[in-house]
Write a structure and sequence with these properties.
By secondary structure, the protein is mainly β. It is built from no helices and 18 strands. Helices cover 0% and strands 54% of the residues.
Amino acid sequence: MSGIVGSYFNTRGSGVVAKLGTDGQVFTSTGAGLSQGFEAAGGGAWNLIQTLTSDGSDANLSFTSGLDSTYDAYCFKLINIHPETDQSELNFNVSIDGGSNYNVAKTTSSFRAYNKEDDAARSLAYDSAMDLAQGTGVQLLAENVGNDNDNSASGFLYLFAPSSTTFVKHFITRVNATNKSADPHTFDTFIGGYANTTSAVDAIQFIFSSGEIQGGKIKMYGIS
């Protein structure tokens, strides 16, 4: 018969038997006529390194440790980042000196989708105003984030091989934000680019263009 027999999975008539996997793994084909296998879902493990939670009066949220050669990819999950100042921009920058300076040159490209609550206007377009061309200042993640009590920005940033001393440092971001104060709408911002340095990037900072971060958290994961 087919199905689970004891601690094994049997495919009827094939003579192929596979040992069951462990929690968090998925059932995967390894080829015709071969025993199937169990592998980690997503191809790797998400290792939580650090969580920064705003206490309501943070000038910025900065990761100055844990960003090293342990992993080839890091992900920063932004969860309900709430601004003090209405319609402010959420930005980030990186450092090669442990956070003493956030001024690495970056070249980026971006596009954005938005839709109003009343469905009166919508768009999907390249947005040159959010790009950098060897700019050393902050890179925008989301613009016009509202400071109403229920407004925030959430999304992610992936940073690849930050400790490489051979290649520039690629990153991709996607952040969705709400502004319900003056012109209620949602906007979804996509940005990709690179920090143009062959020095190791060892710190990253998230900051609003005006005012404090007054709520939310950022989780830093290493992906193995």
